């Protein structure tokens, strides 16, 4: 029996309610941000530490290897497995702030960003500040001993973690924060307790070991186990706690951890020092570090050439004839303006003494600072996004003593040339001697694989020859496991092997990671990225998109949708048609039907992929021809369709809700869930017909969204148009009239639509017909683009922008059309002319995916704060996934997307509940049981004249 078959047989003996063996689940979870790929035989999704303990005990009984996986952002291959993969992200997201923010208790599935969001109200944050904070989880931060740009070694995970609840391979659970934790460890695991103390005596008593440990751990160092714990602690339980930090899931599971937090320094000034040479930049480092700079980020000449390509490149480098130049991005931070000013004044003589290639100044302006940071953070985006299709982007990191940094960087550049790596850039945390470099590699080419192996050998010689570490931040993983012995020597390597034997004697936790005796294991199980679709080929599988995806807890994430397309392509290339067919069958629901196509993924993606574009194209390719024909007819008769839809909802409101639900249930059973929406009692009666209006003094063209005809206002009696509520369109018109702002509504408005219903469903013919009709009408109504076009639904404003962008590719005249969301328009042209007469006591506010992509959330907040001093946006805010009618076609999607934020909202009552889109209002109303309305409706009521 093969190892894979044996693992499959053993996994069949696990709880089927906890473990999935479906091909789609196994292959979706197989991919992480590294360049390694192993397909697990099963994916377990435990709900508690006890569940994990039972899994590990059963793993030991069966001899079944197991690997933990959380955010999947690690780069060194430490979160992939060909046996049992344990998903610790979905059900381990708890966060509890302690001692006024001085400490925080966190579960491993919570992202660093979500923890810091909870701590922000207290002026605190976690010490580790990895660049992947949007998606990396606390579990990975602990497993890799993460640090980051500013924390150095002083505030990394090892230094700021206070205690943990750990689950050992035996299933034993220990809370190391308990007063009797050491005694409990001795009682439950006597051999382990005694063995750790024995190892401590061995390490501390060996002068060479002490010297090596002291040297390597004076720098950032994530190679091997954190054996500095034997010098830093005396109790076995404390040693064990700190050995688990950076152990990459090879010693146990951390179910919960308590961190000491650090102060947020909100006053910040940033600048870019451009030196003529690398030597000049590194020579300045000691004085720059001594000046108290919080951040010093290095970018070599190749990086600067890449940065010059950015549209917002700062003047300091935009016109620089880059040759051997090097830049240092520096930043001062202060608790307040006074502290920042003091730091800046103290540094001025130093900055003035530097021989620079371009003028230098520190700036506190948020936009200027953002542009400077875009130079640094945009390097990965530019290089990875432009790599040839079918290649992998490798982001590596090393550390050397700061005095050796210049020579190391120069030699790395020479190695790039020698091994024919083009467009490789060097950047990183200069004050720590920690730099990253990028390689684009194709692992299905034997010649390139040999090149990669040769480069790695030379790079290892270079770093170890400089007294450095082969991994500073990213963890040993699989990529550097064969080189741990060489970095530490035989004695300390044997200590690490003994640690593994003591804690995991069967070697079942994450085998092949961190320690590996096979010298070429780092070039085994390498990932190949087959070309699939233009929309997504540049994906680097980093996972940054996953936390913002509304379907992440019910089906798939954007990364998983992309990697499954690659898996299908790979299966077809291998001739495994049966697997490809199974994957395609399950992908229809998981990948296509339950994608909200909201585009939130592009807001987090470093290479700007909108997976919704892929999904919409797949819907187009697989569109039901009868449905497509029907929607094409609807495009020609949209006024009648929307009026009919509104009338149907009005009629539905007059009958008992169960009867209306039963009617749609029958239709869904006969025609399919993708065709017939499910009726829900939260739906209002129909709205009012849209009517045109003309005003020669108009300053804008108003495009009232058709969803106002379909769905009536939230609080009108029965939801119908005859009640006191006005709806967003009428509220916008009244606000503009109150402010003396004249508007025009185009002729034939009742037959126009932003096109989103057709585009989201993949009905291209109907979309094209509606696009021509809408853009022609708006082009004329706006005076050929001289007036802005305002829409009262954020998703429709975004839809109009998309329609213009796509049409402009073939009809240049539409490029002059300007679309503005009503929230932004009111904020700019109306709000200042209004007087609040009836303020609202409190408000729960739901920004939308479209308001986020339109960048109108700041305006949204300012309008909300105009009518109330108590505005609440949940920390767990996210897209509601109602997505037009997607929440009616698949209610389970919206239920999953809104569950957490709804619970947060319902912790208290608010006088008003607001959003910027009627369908999003319906989705949130259903989720919370509260009546959501458009923010402009609430503003209109709050600013009505008195008397």
Secondary structure blueprint with pairings:
Elements: H1 3-11, E1 19-20, H2 23-30, E2 42-44, H3 49-62, E3 66-69, E4 84-87, E5 95-98, E6 103-106, H4 112-120, E7 124-125, H5 138-144, H6 157-160, E8 161-167, E9 173-175, H7 181-188, H8 190-204, H9 207-216, H10 229-232, H11 236-244, E10 253-260, E11 262-263, E12 267-275, H12 278-283, H13 285-290, E13 295-299, H14 301-307, H15 315-318, E14 326-334, H16 337-353, H17 366-385, E15 392-399, H18 405-418, E16 426-429, E17 434-441, H19 446-465, H20 484-488, H21 490-503, H22 558-574, H23 577-593, H24 600-604, H25 611-621, H26 625-636, H27 638-653, H28 657-671, E18 700-703, H29 707-710, H30 727-738, E19 743-744, H31 756-761, H32 764-781, E20 789-791, H33 794-808, E21 819-821, H34 822-829, E22 843-845, H35 849-853, H36 857-867, E23 871-872, H37 886-889, H38 891-905, E24 912-915, H39 918-928, E25 933-934, H40 935-942
Parallel strand pairs: 2-4, 3-4, 18-19, 18-20, 20-21, 22-23, 22-24, 24-25
Antiparallel strand pairs: 1-2, 5-6, 6-10, 7-11, 8-9, 8-10, 12-14, 13-14, 13-16, 15-17, 16-17
Helix pairs in contact: 2-22, 7-8, 8-11, 8-21, 14-17, 18-19, 22-23, 26-32, 30-40, 34-36, 36-40, 38-39
């Amino acid at each position: 029996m093969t190892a894979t078959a044996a693992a499959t047989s053993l996994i069949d003996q696990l709880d089927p309610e906890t473990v999935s063996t479906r091909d789609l689940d196994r292959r979706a979870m197989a991919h992480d941000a590294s360049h390694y790929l192993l397909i697990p035989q099963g994916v377990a999704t435990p709900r508690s530490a006890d569940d994990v303990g039972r899994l590990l005990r059963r793993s030991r009984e069966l001899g079944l290897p197991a690997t933990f996986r959380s955010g999947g952002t690690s780069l060194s291959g430490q979160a992939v497995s060909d046996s049992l993969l344990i998903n610790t992200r979905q059900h381990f997201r708890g966060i509890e702030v302690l001692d006024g923010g001085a400490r925080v208790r966190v579960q491993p599935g919570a992202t660093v960003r979500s923890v810091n969001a909870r701590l922000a109200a207290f002026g605190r944050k976690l010490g580790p500040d990895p660049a992947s904070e949007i998606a990396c989880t606390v579990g990975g931060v602990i497993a890799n001993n993460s640090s980051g740009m500013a924390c150095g070694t002083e505030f990394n995970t090892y230094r700021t973690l206070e205690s943990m609840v750990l689950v050992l391979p035996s299933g034993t659970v220990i809370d190391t924060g308990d007063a009797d934790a050491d005694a409990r460890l001795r009682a439950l695991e006597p051999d382990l307790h005694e063995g750790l103390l024995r190892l401590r005596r061995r390490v501390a008593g060996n002068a060479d070991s002490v010297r090596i440990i002291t040297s390597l751990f004076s720098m950032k160092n994530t190679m091997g186990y954190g054996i500095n714990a034997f010098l830093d602690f005396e109790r076995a339980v404390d040693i064990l706690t700190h050995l688990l930090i950076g152990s990459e899931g090879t010693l146990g599971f951390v179910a919960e951890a308590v961190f000491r937090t650090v102060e947020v320094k909100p006053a910040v000034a940033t600048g870019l020092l451009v030196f003529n040479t690398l030597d000049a930049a590194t020579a300045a480092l000691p004085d720059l570090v001594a000046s108290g700079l919080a951040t010093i980020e290095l970018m070599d000449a190749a990086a600067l050439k890449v940065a010059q390509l950015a549209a917002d490149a700062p003047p300091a480098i935009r016109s620089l004839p880059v040759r051997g130049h090097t830049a240092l991005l520096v930043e001062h931070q202060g608790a307040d303006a006074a502290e920042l000013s003091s730091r800046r004044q103290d540094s001025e003589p130093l900055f003035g003494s530097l021989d620079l290639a371009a003028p230098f100044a520190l700036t506190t302006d948020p936009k200027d600072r953002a542009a400077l940071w875009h130079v640094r953070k945009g390097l990965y985006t530019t290089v990875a996004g432009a790599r040839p299709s079918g290649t992998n982007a490798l982001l590596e990191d090393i550390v050397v003593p700061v005095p050796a940094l210049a020579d190391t960087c120069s030699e790395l550049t020479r190695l790039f040339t020698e091994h024919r790596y083009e467009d490789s850039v060097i950047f990183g945390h200069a004050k720590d001697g920690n730099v990253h470099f990028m390689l684009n590699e194709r692992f299905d080419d034997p010649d390139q694989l040999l090149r990669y192996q040769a480069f790695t050998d030379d790079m290892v010689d270079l770093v170890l020859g400089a007294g450095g570490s082969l991994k500073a931040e990213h963890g040993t993983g699989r990529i550097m496991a064969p080189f741990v012995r060489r970095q530490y020597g035989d004695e300390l390597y044997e200590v690490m092997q003994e640690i593994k034997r003591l804690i995991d004697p069967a070697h079942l936790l994450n085998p092949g990671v961190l320690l590996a005796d096979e010298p070429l294991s780092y070039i085994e199980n390498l990932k190949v990225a087959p070309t699939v679709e233009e929309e997504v080929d540049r994906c680097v599988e980093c996972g940054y998109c996953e936390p913002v995806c509304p379907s992440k807890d019910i089906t798939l994430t954007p990364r998983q949708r992309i990697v499954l397309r690659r898996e299908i392509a790979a299966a077809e290339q291998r001739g495994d048609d049966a697997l490809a067919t199974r994957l395609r069958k399950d992908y229809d629901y998981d990948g296509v039907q339950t994608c909200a196509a909201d585009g939130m993924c592009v807001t987090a993606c470093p290479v700007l992929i909108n997976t919704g574009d892929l999904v919409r194209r797949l819907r187009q390719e697989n569109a039901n021809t009868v449905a497509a024909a029907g929607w094409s007819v609807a495009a020609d008769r949209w006024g009648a369709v929307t009026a009919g839809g509104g009338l149907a909802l009005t009629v539905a409101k007059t009958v008992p809700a169960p009867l209306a639900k039963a009617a749609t249930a029958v239709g869904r059973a006969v025609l399919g869930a993708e065709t017939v929406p499910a009726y829900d009692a939260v739906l209002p009666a129909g709205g009012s017909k849209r009517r045109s209006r003309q005003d020669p003094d108009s300053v804008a063209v108003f495009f009232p969204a058709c969803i106002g005809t379909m769905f009536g206002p939230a609080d009108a009696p029965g939801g119908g148009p005859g009640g006191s509520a006005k709806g967003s369109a009428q509220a916008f018109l009244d606000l503009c009239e109150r402010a003396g702002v004249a508007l025009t509504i185009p002729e034939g408005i009742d037959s126009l639509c932003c096109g989103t219903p057709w585009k989201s469903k993949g009905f291209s013919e109907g979309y094209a017909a509606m696009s021509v009709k809408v853009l022609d009408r708006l082009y004329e109504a706006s005076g050929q683009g001289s007036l802005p076009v305002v829409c009262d639904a954020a998703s429709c404003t975004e839809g109009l922008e998309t329609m213009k962008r796509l049409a402009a590719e073939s009809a240049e005249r539409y490029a002059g059309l300007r679309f503005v969301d009503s929230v932004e328009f009111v904020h700019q042209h109306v709000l200042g002319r209004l007087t609040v007469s009836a303020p609202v006591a409190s408000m729960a506010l739901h920004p939308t995916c479209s308001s986020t992509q339109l960048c109108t959330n700041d305006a949204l907040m300012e309008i909300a704060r105009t009518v109330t001093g108590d505005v609440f946006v949940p920390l767990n805010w996210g897209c509601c996934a109602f997505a037009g009618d997607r929440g009616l076609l698949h209610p389970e999607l919206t239920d999953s997307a809104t569950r957490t934020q709804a619970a947060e909202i319902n912790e208290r009552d608010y006088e008003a509940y607001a959003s910027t889109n009627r369908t999003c209002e319906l989705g949130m109303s259903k989720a919370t049981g509260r009546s959501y309305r458009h923010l402009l409706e609430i503003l209109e009521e709050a600013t009505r004249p008195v008397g």
